[in-house]
Amino acid sequence: QRPAAIVSPIAGTTRDVLEVALNIGGYPVLLSDTAGLRDTSDSVEQEGVRRARQRVEEAHLSLVVVDLTQLPSEPQRVPVFLKEHLRSILEHPTLGQESVLILNKSDLVSAEHKQRVESSLQMEADLPLVCFMSCHTRDGLEDLLTLLQGRLKILCGDPLMGSPSLTQTRHRILLQKTAQALQEYGQYRDLDLVLAAEELRLALGSLGRITGRVDPEEILDLIFKDFCIGK
Ligand SMILES: Nc1nc2c(ncn2[C@@H]2O[C@H](COP(=O)(O)OP(=O)(O)OP(=O)(O)O)[C@@H](O)[C@H]2O)c(=O)[nH]1
Ligand SMILES: [Mg+2]
């Protein structure tokens, strides 16, 4: 929630991809601000748009920011306008499932207009999640963060559920042993291959007791094959 990008009234200000690491509800997020996806004759901006599209392809979630004041004045025309807009900027229609539509500059429209636009979008099944906000007044920012947190929970899994969290003492101890053995391996690696290999075996053994997937013979075969040590 700090200013990171250059902001100006001139369209086409952002060209390079600007990345900021964020913590949203405990999830580590890499947020990329890109050039706006629009047709342009400026070759530098064209490169910015190409990079932006590439980033959209790679992203787990894309936030599409639209200026509320640029939407049709009749609210009933807004859903079709937004669908066409999304189709024109997102090459793959399935991206609609992984995007959030942010209608920005809510401070510049009346509360009634915002309400009417919101109602016109409520029944739309084939639009992404929609969020109203104002970067100027910060209105809607908390709602956006809550919405993102919900999406991240689905994308990354709930850390309070399932196996990845270290809830069992046995797992914690075995992981500590794994880390310790890997550290020793690092120290022996350039000094003594046999001791280094033994530490690797110990590390895999500890890890394997959690995952249940260790085949020492297979690992030893690999070590002996790669390091040419006689069996
Ligand atoms: N009133 C109002 N103005 C805003 C808001 N958000 C951004 N602006 C203004 O809109 C203009 C464009 O903002 P930018 O952040 O540069 O927009 P952008 O989408 O990154 O644009 P490009 O980098 O050129 O693609 C600036 O003059 C901002 O001050 C808002 O919520 N309310
Ligand atoms: Mg920008």
Automatic annotation (TrEMBL):
GO terms for cellular component: mitochondrion
Record GO terms (molecular function): GTP binding
Domain MnmE helical intervals: 47-228
GO biological process terms, semicolon-separated: tRNA methylation; tRNA wobble uridine modification
Pfam families: MnmE_helical (PF12631)
Coiled-coil features, chain-numbered ranges: none
Name of the protein: MnmE helical domain-containing protein
Native source species: Danionella cerebrum
Lineage: Eukaryota, Metazoa, Chordata, Craniata, Vertebrata
